[in-house]
Amino acid sequence: MSRQKPTKSSSKFGHLPKTEQFWANINIFEYAMKSPDNYHIELCMKLLEEKFSFGNGHGYTQKDLEQLSSYIEEHTGYYISLSTLKRVWKGTYKTQPQIATLNALVEVLGYKNWQDFKIQHQKAKLEEEKGSKRSKWPFYLAAPIVAIILTVIVFSFGESGASNVKIEGPVSFSADKTVAKGVPNTFIFEYDLSHVVADSFFIQQSWNAWRKEKIDPKKEVYASTYYESGFHRAKLIANDEVVATQAVHILSDGWEPHVYYSEADDIFIDFKGERFVADGRLHLPIELLKKRGLDTSRYFMSRISHSDDYGVSSNNFGFKTKIKVEKALESNCPWVNVLLITTEHVFSAKLVRNGCETGASYKLGEIYKSGKDNNLSKLGTDLYEWNDLEIKVEGKKATILLNGKEAYSENYQEDLGNIVGLSYVFEGTGSIDFVELTDEKGKVVFQDDFEVYE
């Protein structure tokens, strides 16, 4: 997808000829660079571009920012609009981005918040400053300026990085797994790109851009290994355009816990061969985390998932669970996000500690609400104690109940398909005491009370 040129209204210098427009924009950016936070903003952008392979290494595209917005929303509960991300990447914000925006951006990189990110990278910044005293422009300013100049050149002198994809006939894309359930699981992708003209081709395991692998368009088969169960939509990509998608459903072999320092990491800690169900609950105690090599001094999160063909429509179902967060981190605002994965998207309810309701959120059908611009005080609770959470849907009317009391209700329109996965994401670690999923008739299709009978 090609970048769009800014309209004249985007700058007070829009009436100038292109050459003068270019230098006027440079002056604007030089002024913006005087902010002490700009070094860290540019670094944050660079790390995100590297992590999510923006533009296949040739600059960002709108699709990259759209994917990043979706990723942040689904994995942190924060919503950052596409227009906000564009302003950040184009450097057109009049003041520094809001701290909530910066917090969300660095959280997907594995940092607690913006302040934590700045502190951890301050040493590198000082070293760069020390090594560049002989330069009129310090290196830590010169590099971003060069990047900005290149960006302005692109927008001032015409479009660049256009996808130039030509589809001259049918495109086929299919997949078959090598193992019935569980991970690791290799999928054999078969494709035919003989009717597609482009510079480069990729298979992306899911919507996450960092799960993208380059393929040879002259061949017809590519094998890719998945290390997490769940429902994914693999993408066949030409340049930066998706030319075909393929559903990939990996059934889990029971409950599957993973621990991450960051959701964007492609490396995680699993618990194969370990016992994490005991005393009537699923639990990842600190002792077990340390045994598996977790650095408990760092920020981390746990994701516990179960994926199956439950045969339950997301238009009519019942879900009940009992959960709590464990005191594994020195966190002022602990949280847990409970997600029901469907063939089209997710339902979710993010609970937070009392007083931290700006971090709460829910998604019911296509309706998403954040505590930043909605009153979600009813999703605030004492997470260090057991909480009963219920989500029930009757004819696309969804209701969230917390500890037996109705919290929020929404009528949605879109059909999100069948439920194919259950997922719990804890800040730090947590425990699950009970899970139950029922169909439209109230029949229990999945239940686990974590009692072990030997």
Automatic annotation (TrEMBL):
The lineage of its organism: Bacteria, Pseudomonadati, Bacteroidota, Flavobacteriia, Flavobacteriales. The chain crosses the membrane at residues 139-158. Keywords: Membrane, Transmembrane, Transmembrane helix. This is DUF1080 domain-containing protein. It comes from Flagellimonas abyssi. It comes from the Bacteria.
